[in-house]
Amino acid sequence: MDLSQLNFLAIIVAAVSAFFLGGFWYSRACFGKIWMAETGITEDKAAQANMAKTFGFAFLASLIITFNLAMFLGPHSTFATGAFYGFLAGFGWVAMAFGINDLFEQRSLKLFLVNAGYHTVSFTLIGAIVGGWH
Q: Which helix (H) or strand (E) holds 1?
């Protein structure tokens, strides 16, 4: 595929959108309390993390995910096809990969639903933005 056919502004906006969705998804206002309880991460432990490093690499990962999905979608996708294929990638690949790991690591269904749900919604959002913005 010719990279010049990609909408790099849409890729950046979609990556930023997914990043901010994650900030909301894992906040105390949404699923943050459940996520913390299920992972055993406390407020004190979270405060000790290098947040610049965590957020920096999380955004970089979002950017790579978005670029990769844009390559799969190609230049002729639409909002609907982008959202649909984003959903399929998020649910069918990412969520199910989490599910396999969570089964073997004996993690809870709640944690699976929080993490898999985020990635399913995130990939759908990314696909919709990249697919619909030409």
A: none
Structure tokens at 8: 């790099």
Proportion of the chain above pLDDT 70, given as a percent? 99
Classify 2 in phi/psi space as left (phi over 0), alpha (psi -120 to 50) or beta.
Answer: beta
Q: Read off the tokens for 62.
A: 């979002």
Q: Is 44 exposed, middle or buried (0-12, 13-18, 19+ CB in 10 A)?
A: exposed
Range 31-57 average pLDDT: 94
pLDDT score at 3: 87
Length of the chain: 134
| CB-CB contact of 110 with 31 (8 Å) | no
**In the chain, helix, strand, coil percent, each to 5?**
80, 0, 20
Does residue 82 have a pLDDT over 90? yes
- Which residue in 70, 62, 81, 77 sits closest to 21, CA to CA? 62
Secondary structure tally for the chain: helices H, strands E:
7, 0
Whether pTM > 0.85 for this model: the answer is yes
CB within 8 A of 45, min separation 6: which ones? Answer: none
Tell me the two tokens of residue 63.
């950017």
